[in-house]
């Protein structure tokens, strides 16, 4: 009797274990039929979005399966966190070598010059954002990679409806950044229809994060305000107080990216989707921040970035992403302020303990 109970319990245990293993495999089996996790290359991974994405994907697929790359010298922390390689997006052979050596399956293409920086150096923006993308498309076609390229609210312009801006509408941007992103959307969709390339693209709004600084976009003020508040500085905004733009907290942004990467083919009615979480103006974020730091002083001195913001969407319509593959944001303005201050205060405490 006791033996029977032991055998039953062993069988039950092994059944449970195999169920758990199956469940584990199912969550990881987004690519290989044999259950191997995908091997992923991230270009431009030392910018605002790349470090967080590498962490998220390494948590899901294993540290060694996610290769970070950039042209920037990495910190010790980055090198210790997992594989990191030099990759200039303009060097096709170098990219080929990485794809072959690391047996890459998916490519997340982050390298870019953002809106404000792009306007300061148009020839370089054309090279990095357009020639670089050509390399990525050819490489992905040649090695049959699934490729994700982020687009942006900057892919719209003054002729687009701004409130709300639907998924499919007129796109006549007036920045080289926007032009290069429309080019990326169209070329990716062309490669998909012509060659069967598994191209996936999300148009992100301004992204707000605590641990990495933004790389020269028009929405950077929405990160700066948190740093100024916590360090007791006056916040000088380069946009008018009423300029409304769509925004997203980084965790939502990276989760949307991953959900788009693993969305089943049959759910994707499009290859390019709008995603967003909230829309606010500088005066609205300032009053949300003042709930935590009532003494924050704000002044407004619009510069050339105002001209860019004036042509961008105010409210971004992401209903198609919500209907087709179930996109849902978790952070609104209030929740984002909470998490930003919690994280920035933790960083401040760690810096004061380490004497920095
Ligand atoms: N951050 C946002 O608010 C936002 C919003 C919409 C879309 N996006 C898109 O997401 C992507 C990542 O954005 P981010 O904010 O991390 O940008 P970022 O400017 O912070 O980082 C871009 C990275 O590209 C790298 N790079 C530049 N030239 C390169 C080259 N020749 N070869 C390889 N790498 C090169 C830079 O070193 C940098 O680390 C970009 O394509 C951007 O257009 C970002």
Span from first to last CA?
Answer: 67 Å
As a percent range, the share of strand residues is 5-15%
Which kinds of small molecule does this entry bind, naming each only once?
nicotinamide-adenine-dinucleotide
Principal-axes geometry comes out as: globular
The description of the largest β-sheet is: 7 strands, parallel
Structural class: alpha/beta
Helix content: 40-55%
How many helix segments?
13
CATH class of the domain at 112-355: Alpha Beta
Instruction: Give the CATH H-level superfamily of the domain at 112-355.
Output: NAD(P)-binding Rossmann-like Domain
Within the CATH hierarchy, at the fold level, what is the topology of the domain at 112-355?
Rossmann fold
Strand line-up across the major sheet: 3-2-1-4-5-6-10
Order of helices and strands: HEHEHEHEHHEHEEHEEHEEHEHHH
C-alpha Rg (nearest Å): 22 Å
Q: What's the average pLDDT? A: 92
State the total count of DSSP E strands: 12
Which CATH architecture of the domain at 112-355?
A: 3-Layer(aba) Sandwich
Low-pLDDT ranges: 1-29
Pathway: Amino-acid degradation; L-threonine degradation via oxydo-reductase pathway; glycine from L-threonine: step 1/2
Domain NAD-dependent epimerase/dehydratase: 40-275
Enzyme class: oxidoreductase
EC number: 1.1.1.103
């Amino acid at each position: 009797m006791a033996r029977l109970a032991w055998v039953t319990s062993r069988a039950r245990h092994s059944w449970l274990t195999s169920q758990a293993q199956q469940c584990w495999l199912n969550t990881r089996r987004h690519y290989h039929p044999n259950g191997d996790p995908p091997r992923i290359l991230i270009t431009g991974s030392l910018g605002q979005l790349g470090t967080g994405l590498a962490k998220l994907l390494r948590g899901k697929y294993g540290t060694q399966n996610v290769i970070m790359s950039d042209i920037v010298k990495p910190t010790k922390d980055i090198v210790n966190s997992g594989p990191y390689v030099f990759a200039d997006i303009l060097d096709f052979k170098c990219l080929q070598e990485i794809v072959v050596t690391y047996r890459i399956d998916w490519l997340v293409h982050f390298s870019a010059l953002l809106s404000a920086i792009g306007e300061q150096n148009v020839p370089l923006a054309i090279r990095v954002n357009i020639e670089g993308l050509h390399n990525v498309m050819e490489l992905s076609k040649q090695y049959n990679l699934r490729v994700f390229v982020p687009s942006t609210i900057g892919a719209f312009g003054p002729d687009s409806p701004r409130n709300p801006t639907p998924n499919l509408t007129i796109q006549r941007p007036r920045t080289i950044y926007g032009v290069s992103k429309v080019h990326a959307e169209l070329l990716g969709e062309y490669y998909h229809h012509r060659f069967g390339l598994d191209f996936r693209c999300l148009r992100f709004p301004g992204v707000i994060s605590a641990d990495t600084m933004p790389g020269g976009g028009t929405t950077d003020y929405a990160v700066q305000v948190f740093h100024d508040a916590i360090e007791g500085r006056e916040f000088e905004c380069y946009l008018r107080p009423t300029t409304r733009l769509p925004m997203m907290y980084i965790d939502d942004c990276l989760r949307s990216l991953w959900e788009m990467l693993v969305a089943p083919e049959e759910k994707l009615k499009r290859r390019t989707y709008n995603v967003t979480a909230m829309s606010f103006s500088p005066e609205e974020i300032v009053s949300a921040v003042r709930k935590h730091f009532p003494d924050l002083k704000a002044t407004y001195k619009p510069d050339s970035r105002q001209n860019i913001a004036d042509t961008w969407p105010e409210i971004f319509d992401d209903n198609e992403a919500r209907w087709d593959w179930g996109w849902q944001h978790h952070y609104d303005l209030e929740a984002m302020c909470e998490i930003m201050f919690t994280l920035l205060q933790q960083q401040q405490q760690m810096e004061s303990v380490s004497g920095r």
